[in-house]
Amino acid sequence: MSRYVFTSESVTEGHPDKICDQVSDAVLDAVLAQDPASRVACETVVNTGLCLITGEITTNARVDFNSLVRGVIEQIGYSGARAGGFDARSAAVLIALDQQSPDIAQGVNEADDHDGDPLDLIGAGDQGIMFGYACDETPELMPLPISLAHRLARRLAEVRHNGSLGYLLPDGKTQVSVVYENDQPVAIDTILISTQHEADIDGVSEEKAVRERISADLWTNVVLPATADLVLKPDQDSTRFLVNPTGKFVVGGPQGDAGLTGRKIIVDTYGGYARHGGGAFSGKDPTKVDRSAAYAARYVAKALVAAGLARKAEVQLSYAIGVARPVSILVETFGTGKLSNDDLTALVQEHFDLRPGAIIATFALRDLPQQRGGRFYQDVAAYGHFGRSDLQLPWEDVTVVAANLRQATASRVGSPA
Protein backbone atom coordinates (compact mmCIF):
# COMPACT_ATOMS: atom_id res chain seq x y z
CA MET A 1 0.00 0.00 0.00
CA SER A 2 1.33 3.41 -1.01
CA ARG A 3 0.84 6.02 1.74
CA TYR A 4 1.99 9.64 1.67
CA VAL A 5 1.01 13.16 2.78
CA PHE A 6 0.60 15.99 0.28
CA THR A 7 0.33 19.65 1.31
CA SER A 8 -0.97 22.78 -0.44
CA GLU A 9 -1.38 26.36 0.71
CA SER A 10 -3.57 29.35 -0.04
CA VAL A 11 -3.54 32.99 1.04
CA THR A 12 -6.26 35.54 1.70
CA GLU A 13 -7.00 38.62 -0.38
CA GLY A 14 -5.10 40.73 2.17
CA HIS A 15 -1.77 38.97 1.64
CA PRO A 16 0.69 41.50 0.13
CA ASP A 17 1.23 39.49 -3.06
CA LYS A 18 -2.51 39.00 -3.49
CA ILE A 19 -3.16 42.72 -3.04
CA CYS A 20 -0.87 43.20 -6.04
CA ASP A 21 -2.62 40.52 -8.11
CA GLN A 22 -5.99 42.13 -7.42
CA VAL A 23 -4.78 45.64 -8.24
CA SER A 24 -3.21 44.44 -11.50
CA ASP A 25 -6.39 42.62 -12.48
CA ALA A 26 -8.56 45.58 -11.46
CA VAL A 27 -6.52 47.66 -13.91
CA LEU A 28 -7.09 44.98 -16.57
CA ASP A 29 -10.83 44.95 -15.87
CA ALA A 30 -11.06 48.72 -16.07
CA VAL A 31 -9.38 49.08 -19.45
CA LEU A 32 -11.00 46.02 -21.06
CA ALA A 33 -14.44 47.19 -19.93
CA GLN A 34 -13.96 50.34 -21.99
CA ASP A 35 -11.74 48.96 -24.77
CA PRO A 36 -11.80 45.16 -25.18
CA ALA A 37 -8.87 45.30 -27.61
CA SER A 38 -6.53 46.77 -24.97
CA ARG A 39 -3.12 45.25 -24.49
CA VAL A 40 -2.20 45.05 -20.83
CA ALA A 41 0.83 43.86 -18.86
CA CYS A 42 0.42 45.51 -15.47
CA GLU A 43 2.65 44.81 -12.47
CA THR A 44 2.02 46.06 -8.95
CA VAL A 45 4.35 46.52 -5.98
CA VAL A 46 3.23 47.30 -2.43
CA ASN A 47 5.17 48.18 0.70
CA THR A 48 4.50 50.22 3.82
CA GLY A 49 2.51 53.25 2.71
CA LEU A 50 3.20 52.64 -1.00
CA CYS A 51 1.54 51.12 -4.06
CA LEU A 52 3.27 51.28 -7.45
CA ILE A 53 1.68 50.13 -10.69
CA THR A 54 3.97 49.75 -13.66
CA GLY A 55 4.20 47.88 -16.95
CA GLU A 56 2.86 48.38 -20.47
CA ILE A 57 -0.68 49.30 -21.49
CA THR A 58 -1.94 50.21 -24.96
CA THR A 59 -5.59 51.28 -24.83
CA ASN A 60 -8.17 53.87 -25.80
CA ALA A 61 -9.71 53.63 -22.32
CA ARG A 62 -9.51 56.52 -19.90
CA VAL A 63 -9.09 55.32 -16.33
CA ASP A 64 -8.43 57.14 -13.06
CA PHE A 65 -5.82 54.67 -11.88
CA ASN A 66 -5.24 56.46 -8.59
CA SER A 67 -8.86 56.15 -7.50
CA LEU A 68 -9.07 52.60 -8.86
CA VAL A 69 -6.08 51.43 -6.82
CA ARG A 70 -7.33 53.07 -3.63
CA GLY A 71 -10.73 51.48 -4.12
CA VAL A 72 -9.27 47.98 -4.40
CA ILE A 73 -7.14 48.46 -1.28
CA GLU A 74 -10.16 49.71 0.67
CA GLN A 75 -12.37 46.81 -0.49
CA ILE A 76 -9.78 44.37 0.80
CA GLY A 77 -9.91 46.03 4.20
CA TYR A 78 -6.85 48.26 4.52
CA SER A 79 -8.35 51.55 5.65
CA GLY A 80 -8.53 53.66 8.78
CA ALA A 81 -6.88 52.97 12.12
CA ARG A 82 -6.71 49.21 11.47
CA ALA A 83 -4.78 49.59 8.22
CA GLY A 84 -1.40 49.22 9.88
CA GLY A 85 0.77 51.51 7.78
CA PHE A 86 -1.04 50.78 4.51
CA ASP A 87 -4.16 52.94 4.42
CA ALA A 88 -6.14 53.17 1.20
CA ARG A 89 -6.71 56.87 1.83
CA SER A 90 -3.17 57.97 2.66
CA ALA A 91 -0.81 55.50 0.94
CA ALA A 92 1.24 56.91 -1.90
CA VAL A 93 0.02 55.60 -5.28
CA LEU A 94 2.61 55.84 -8.06
CA ILE A 95 1.80 55.25 -11.74
CA ALA A 96 4.58 54.30 -14.18
CA LEU A 97 2.99 52.85 -17.33
CA ASP A 98 4.33 52.65 -20.89
CA GLN A 99 2.81 51.35 -24.14
CA GLN A 100 3.34 47.82 -25.45
CA SER A 101 6.55 47.35 -27.46
CA PRO A 102 5.84 47.60 -31.22
CA ASP A 103 8.08 44.55 -31.73
CA ILE A 104 5.70 42.45 -29.61
CA ALA A 105 2.59 44.11 -31.01
CA GLN A 106 3.37 43.26 -34.63
CA GLY A 107 3.47 39.53 -33.89
CA VAL A 108 0.27 39.61 -31.87
CA ASN A 109 -1.56 41.78 -34.41
CA GLU A 110 -0.71 39.46 -37.30
CA ALA A 111 0.51 35.93 -36.62
CA ASP A 112 3.48 34.65 -38.62
CA ASP A 113 1.53 31.50 -39.62
CA HIS A 114 -1.83 33.03 -40.54
CA ASP A 115 -3.62 31.84 -43.70
CA GLY A 116 -6.53 34.27 -43.83
CA ASP A 117 -8.56 32.66 -41.07
CA PRO A 118 -9.49 35.51 -38.65
CA LEU A 119 -8.52 33.34 -35.68
CA ASP A 120 -5.06 32.93 -37.20
CA LEU A 121 -4.48 36.66 -37.12
CA ILE A 122 -3.72 36.73 -33.39
CA GLY A 123 -0.28 35.38 -32.58
CA ALA A 124 0.78 34.32 -29.11
CA GLY A 125 1.88 37.29 -27.00
CA ASP A 126 4.98 35.42 -25.86
CA GLN A 127 6.67 32.06 -26.01
CA GLY A 128 6.16 29.68 -23.11
CA ILE A 129 4.73 26.49 -21.69
CA MET A 130 1.42 26.15 -19.87
CA PHE A 131 -0.09 23.25 -17.92
CA GLY A 132 -3.67 22.37 -17.12
CA TYR A 133 -4.77 19.68 -14.68
CA ALA A 134 -7.86 17.93 -13.39
CA CYS A 135 -8.55 14.91 -11.19
CA ASP A 136 -11.56 13.22 -9.65
CA GLU A 137 -10.75 13.98 -5.97
CA THR A 138 -13.38 16.71 -5.62
CA PRO A 139 -16.68 17.62 -7.36
CA GLU A 140 -14.95 20.53 -9.09
CA LEU A 141 -12.26 18.08 -10.34
CA MET A 142 -9.43 19.72 -8.41
CA PRO A 143 -6.83 18.22 -6.07
CA LEU A 144 -8.21 18.04 -2.54
CA PRO A 145 -5.35 19.83 -0.69
CA ILE A 146 -5.60 23.09 -2.68
CA SER A 147 -9.39 22.89 -2.71
CA LEU A 148 -9.44 22.72 1.09
CA ALA A 149 -6.83 25.46 1.47
CA HIS A 150 -8.91 27.82 -0.71
CA ARG A 151 -12.09 26.97 1.20
CA LEU A 152 -10.44 27.91 4.47
CA ALA A 153 -8.91 31.11 3.07
CA ARG A 154 -12.23 32.28 1.61
CA ARG A 155 -14.04 31.54 4.87
CA LEU A 156 -11.34 33.34 6.85
CA ALA A 157 -11.95 36.47 4.79
CA GLU A 158 -15.72 36.02 5.03
CA VAL A 159 -15.84 36.01 8.84
CA ARG A 160 -13.63 39.11 8.86
CA HIS A 161 -15.82 40.99 6.39
CA ASN A 162 -19.14 40.04 8.01
CA GLY A 163 -17.93 40.89 11.50
CA SER A 164 -18.26 37.38 12.97
CA LEU A 165 -14.63 37.63 14.08
CA GLY A 166 -14.18 41.37 14.16
CA TYR A 167 -10.65 41.24 15.57
CA LEU A 168 -9.25 39.64 12.41
CA LEU A 169 -7.19 41.78 10.01
CA PRO A 170 -6.76 41.28 6.25
CA ASP A 171 -3.53 39.29 5.95
CA GLY A 172 -3.70 35.51 6.27
CA LYS A 173 -2.53 32.13 5.00
CA THR A 174 -3.90 28.60 5.11
CA GLN A 175 -2.24 25.24 4.55
CA VAL A 176 -3.70 21.74 4.42
CA SER A 177 -1.92 18.37 4.52
CA VAL A 178 -3.91 15.40 3.20
CA VAL A 179 -3.10 11.73 3.73
CA TYR A 180 -3.23 9.54 0.60
CA GLU A 181 -3.39 5.77 0.36
CA ASN A 182 -3.02 4.21 -3.08
CA ASP A 183 -3.39 7.71 -4.57
CA GLN A 184 -6.74 8.30 -2.87
CA PRO A 185 -7.26 10.93 -0.11
CA VAL A 186 -8.20 9.18 3.15
CA ALA A 187 -7.65 11.72 5.95
CA ILE A 188 -6.81 15.35 6.72
CA ASP A 189 -3.52 15.23 8.61
CA THR A 190 -2.86 18.90 9.41
CA ILE A 191 -4.55 22.27 9.04
CA LEU A 192 -2.47 25.42 9.50
CA ILE A 193 -3.97 28.90 9.63
CA SER A 194 -1.90 32.03 10.13
CA THR A 195 -4.12 35.08 10.43
CA GLN A 196 -3.40 38.69 11.20
CA HIS A 197 -5.28 39.98 14.24
CA GLU A 198 -5.59 42.87 16.63
CA ALA A 199 -3.23 42.86 19.59
CA ASP A 200 -6.11 43.00 22.07
CA ILE A 201 -9.19 40.76 21.81
CA ASP A 202 -12.05 41.70 24.13
CA GLY A 203 -9.63 43.07 26.69
CA VAL A 204 -7.28 40.09 26.50
CA SER A 205 -3.73 40.84 25.35
CA GLU A 206 -1.62 38.05 26.87
CA GLU A 207 -0.08 36.19 23.94
CA LYS A 208 -1.00 32.63 24.92
CA ALA A 209 -4.58 33.55 25.79
CA VAL A 210 -5.03 35.47 22.52
CA ARG A 211 -3.71 32.53 20.53
CA GLU A 212 -6.02 30.07 22.30
CA ARG A 213 -9.00 32.32 21.70
CA ILE A 214 -8.18 32.65 18.00
CA SER A 215 -7.66 28.89 17.67
CA ALA A 216 -11.03 28.07 19.23
CA ASP A 217 -12.82 30.71 17.16
CA LEU A 218 -11.25 29.57 13.89
CA TRP A 219 -12.14 25.92 14.44
CA THR A 220 -15.77 26.81 15.12
CA ASN A 221 -16.24 29.65 12.64
CA VAL A 222 -13.86 28.76 9.81
CA VAL A 223 -12.81 25.10 9.72
CA LEU A 224 -16.15 23.44 10.50
CA PRO A 225 -18.32 25.59 8.17
CA ALA A 226 -15.75 25.45 5.34
CA THR A 227 -15.71 21.64 5.38
CA ALA A 228 -19.30 20.88 6.42
CA ASP A 229 -20.38 19.51 3.03
CA LEU A 230 -17.36 17.26 2.50
CA VAL A 231 -17.27 13.50 2.88
CA LEU A 232 -13.70 13.70 4.18
CA LYS A 233 -13.77 16.08 7.15
CA PRO A 234 -11.18 17.22 9.68
CA ASP A 235 -11.48 15.70 13.12
CA GLN A 236 -10.40 17.59 16.23
CA ASP A 237 -9.00 14.39 17.76
CA SER A 238 -6.96 13.24 14.74
CA THR A 239 -6.32 16.37 12.65
CA ARG A 240 -3.48 18.52 13.91
CA PHE A 241 -4.62 22.15 14.02
CA LEU A 242 -1.95 24.86 14.08
CA VAL A 243 -2.78 28.54 14.47
CA ASN A 244 -0.26 31.40 14.30
CA PRO A 245 2.69 29.16 15.23
CA THR A 246 5.00 32.14 15.89
CA GLY A 247 2.69 33.15 18.75
CA LYS A 248 1.11 36.28 17.28
CA PHE A 249 0.47 37.95 13.93
CA VAL A 250 -0.29 41.62 14.59
CA VAL A 251 1.99 43.30 12.05
CA GLY A 252 0.99 42.10 8.60
CA GLY A 253 0.05 43.15 5.11
CA PRO A 254 2.46 45.42 3.22
CA GLN A 255 3.76 46.77 6.53
CA GLY A 256 5.07 43.30 7.36
CA ASP A 257 6.19 42.20 3.88
CA ALA A 258 6.46 43.81 0.46
CA GLY A 259 4.17 42.37 -2.21
CA LEU A 260 4.53 41.82 -5.94
CA THR A 261 2.22 40.66 -8.73
CA GLY A 262 2.69 37.06 -9.82
CA ARG A 263 4.41 35.59 -6.77
CA LYS A 264 1.60 33.18 -5.87
CA ILE A 265 1.40 31.15 -9.08
CA ILE A 266 1.13 27.81 -7.24
CA VAL A 267 -1.72 29.14 -5.09
CA ASP A 268 -3.38 30.38 -8.29
CA THR A 269 -3.30 26.94 -9.90
CA TYR A 270 -3.10 23.44 -8.38
CA GLY A 271 -1.20 23.88 -5.14
CA GLY A 272 1.90 22.11 -6.44
CA TYR A 273 -0.04 18.94 -7.28
CA ALA A 274 0.60 19.42 -11.00
CA ARG A 275 3.40 21.01 -12.99
CA HIS A 276 3.50 24.72 -13.72
CA GLY A 277 4.95 26.51 -16.74
CA GLY A 278 6.17 29.43 -14.62
CA GLY A 279 4.05 32.25 -16.05
CA ALA A 280 1.80 34.32 -13.82
CA PHE A 281 -1.76 35.34 -14.72
CA SER A 282 -2.72 38.64 -13.11
CA GLY A 283 -2.43 41.93 -14.97
CA LYS A 284 -2.18 40.23 -18.38
CA ASP A 285 -4.70 40.65 -21.20
CA PRO A 286 -5.92 37.49 -23.02
CA THR A 287 -3.36 37.69 -25.83
CA LYS A 288 -0.81 36.65 -23.21
CA VAL A 289 -0.85 32.86 -23.41
CA ASP A 290 0.57 32.63 -19.89
CA ARG A 291 -3.01 33.35 -18.89
CA SER A 292 -5.35 32.37 -21.71
CA ALA A 293 -3.62 29.12 -22.66
CA ALA A 294 -3.41 28.06 -19.01
CA TYR A 295 -7.19 28.51 -18.84
CA ALA A 296 -7.56 26.49 -22.04
CA ALA A 297 -5.28 23.73 -20.73
CA ARG A 298 -7.42 23.44 -17.59
CA TYR A 299 -10.54 23.31 -19.79
CA VAL A 300 -9.10 20.45 -21.82
CA ALA A 301 -7.89 18.50 -18.78
CA LYS A 302 -11.19 18.94 -16.96
CA ALA A 303 -13.15 17.84 -20.04
CA LEU A 304 -11.09 14.64 -20.31
CA VAL A 305 -11.75 13.76 -16.66
CA ALA A 306 -15.41 14.80 -16.80
CA ALA A 307 -15.84 12.59 -19.87
CA GLY A 308 -14.57 9.61 -17.89
CA LEU A 309 -11.52 9.21 -20.11
CA ALA A 310 -9.08 9.48 -17.19
CA ARG A 311 -9.09 9.91 -13.41
CA LYS A 312 -6.19 12.33 -13.67
CA ALA A 313 -5.20 14.42 -16.68
CA GLU A 314 -2.41 16.93 -17.21
CA VAL A 315 -2.23 18.90 -20.45
CA GLN A 316 0.88 20.75 -21.61
CA LEU A 317 0.72 23.43 -24.30
CA SER A 318 3.62 25.40 -25.75
CA TYR A 319 3.68 28.51 -27.95
CA ALA A 320 6.07 30.71 -29.93
CA ILE A 321 5.69 34.48 -29.85
CA GLY A 322 3.84 35.77 -32.90
CA VAL A 323 2.70 32.28 -33.97
CA ALA A 324 -0.95 31.27 -33.64
CA ARG A 325 -0.86 27.49 -33.50
CA PRO A 326 0.63 25.71 -30.47
CA VAL A 327 4.14 24.40 -30.96
CA SER A 328 3.21 21.26 -29.04
CA ILE A 329 0.32 19.58 -27.22
CA LEU A 330 0.79 16.72 -24.74
CA VAL A 331 -1.65 14.78 -22.55
CA GLU A 332 -0.44 12.77 -19.52
CA THR A 333 -2.90 10.65 -17.50
CA PHE A 334 -0.49 8.96 -15.07
CA GLY A 335 -1.74 5.50 -15.90
CA THR A 336 -5.43 6.37 -15.33
CA GLY A 337 -6.50 6.87 -18.95
CA LYS A 338 -9.07 4.76 -20.77
CA LEU A 339 -7.05 5.44 -23.93
CA SER A 340 -3.31 5.86 -24.41
CA ASN A 341 -1.72 9.26 -23.92
CA ASP A 342 -0.99 9.35 -27.66
CA ASP A 343 -4.66 8.69 -28.50
CA LEU A 344 -5.85 11.30 -26.01
CA THR A 345 -3.41 13.86 -27.40
CA ALA A 346 -4.76 13.18 -30.91
CA LEU A 347 -8.31 13.52 -29.53
CA VAL A 348 -7.46 16.93 -28.06
CA GLN A 349 -5.93 18.09 -31.33
CA GLU A 350 -9.12 17.07 -33.12
CA HIS A 351 -11.67 18.57 -30.73
CA PHE A 352 -10.03 21.73 -29.31
CA ASP A 353 -8.88 24.84 -31.14
CA LEU A 354 -5.98 26.09 -29.04
CA ARG A 355 -4.91 29.11 -31.07
CA PRO A 356 -4.91 32.27 -28.90
CA GLY A 357 -7.63 33.87 -31.04
CA ALA A 358 -9.83 30.79 -30.69
CA ILE A 359 -9.28 30.61 -26.93
CA ILE A 360 -10.19 34.28 -26.57
CA ALA A 361 -13.35 33.75 -28.64
CA THR A 362 -14.39 30.50 -26.92
CA PHE A 363 -14.28 32.04 -23.43
CA ALA A 364 -15.08 35.66 -24.47
CA LEU A 365 -12.00 36.66 -22.51
CA ARG A 366 -11.87 40.22 -23.86
CA ASP A 367 -15.55 40.87 -23.20
CA LEU A 368 -16.01 39.36 -19.73
CA PRO A 369 -15.24 42.56 -17.75
CA GLN A 370 -17.82 44.47 -19.79
CA GLN A 371 -20.35 41.62 -19.54
CA ARG A 372 -19.89 41.35 -15.77
CA GLY A 373 -20.39 45.02 -14.94
CA GLY A 374 -16.77 46.10 -15.16
CA ARG A 375 -15.30 43.46 -12.87
CA PHE A 376 -14.23 39.94 -13.72
CA TYR A 377 -10.50 39.28 -13.51
CA GLN A 378 -10.18 40.91 -10.08
CA ASP A 379 -12.49 38.23 -8.70
CA VAL A 380 -10.27 35.37 -9.86
CA ALA A 381 -7.11 37.10 -8.62
CA ALA A 382 -7.62 35.67 -5.11
CA TYR A 383 -8.56 32.12 -4.03
CA GLY A 384 -7.53 30.41 -7.26
CA HIS A 385 -8.32 30.60 -10.96
CA PHE A 386 -9.63 27.03 -11.21
CA GLY A 387 -12.35 24.94 -9.58
CA ARG A 388 -14.25 28.02 -8.42
CA SER A 389 -17.81 27.05 -7.51
CA ASP A 390 -18.45 30.63 -6.33
CA LEU A 391 -17.81 32.17 -9.78
CA GLN A 392 -19.11 31.41 -13.26
CA LEU A 393 -15.85 30.81 -15.10
CA PRO A 394 -16.23 29.80 -18.77
CA TRP A 395 -13.17 27.54 -18.73
CA GLU A 396 -14.76 25.53 -15.89
CA ASP A 397 -17.95 24.73 -17.85
CA VAL A 398 -17.10 21.51 -19.69
CA THR A 399 -20.58 19.94 -19.85
CA VAL A 400 -20.97 20.18 -23.63
CA VAL A 401 -17.40 19.38 -24.62
CA ALA A 402 -17.21 16.42 -22.21
CA ALA A 403 -20.37 14.99 -23.77
CA ASN A 404 -18.82 15.40 -27.22
CA LEU A 405 -15.69 13.56 -26.09
CA ARG A 406 -17.74 10.71 -24.63
CA GLN A 407 -19.61 10.36 -27.92
CA ALA A 408 -16.42 10.51 -29.97
CA THR A 409 -14.75 7.74 -27.95
CA ALA A 410 -17.75 5.53 -27.12
CA SER A 411 -16.78 2.79 -29.57
CA ARG A 412 -13.26 2.58 -28.14
CA VAL A 413 -13.85 2.79 -24.38
CA GLY A 414 -17.45 1.59 -23.95
CA SER A 415 -19.38 3.60 -21.37
CA PRO A 416 -16.95 5.63 -19.25
CA ALA A 417 -17.81 5.75 -15.56
Protein model, in words:
The protein is α+β, with helices and mostly antiparallel strands and 417 residues long. Helix content is 35%, strand content 21%. The chain has a four-stranded mixed β-sheet. A four-stranded mixed β-sheet has the order 4-3-2-9. α1 (16-34) crosses α2 and α8 packs across α13. The model has no long low-confidence stretch (mean pLDDT 93).
Could you give a quick summary of the protein structure above?
The chain has 417 residues and is α+β, with helices and mostly antiparallel strands. The chain has helices at residues 16-34, 65-76, 102-109, 144-161, 207-226, 253-256, 265-268, 289-306, 341-351, 356-363, 368-371, 377-380, 399-413; strands at 3-11, 39-47, 50-58, 92-98, 128-135, 168-181, 184-197, 240-243, 259-260, 312-319, 328-332. The mean pLDDT is 93.
Topology:
Blueprint: E1 3-11, H1 16-34, E2 39-47, E3 50-58, H2 65-76, E4 92-98, H3 102-109, E5 128-135, H4 144-161, E6 168-181, E7 184-197, H5 207-226, E8 240-243, H6 253-256, E9 259-260, H7 265-268, H8 289-306, E10 312-319, E11 328-332, H9 341-351, H10 356-363, H11 368-371, H12 377-380, H13 399-413
Parallel strand pairs: 3-4, 7-8
Antiparallel strand pairs: 1-6, 2-3, 2-9, 5-10, 6-7, 10-11
Helix pairs in contact: 1-2, 4-5, 8-13
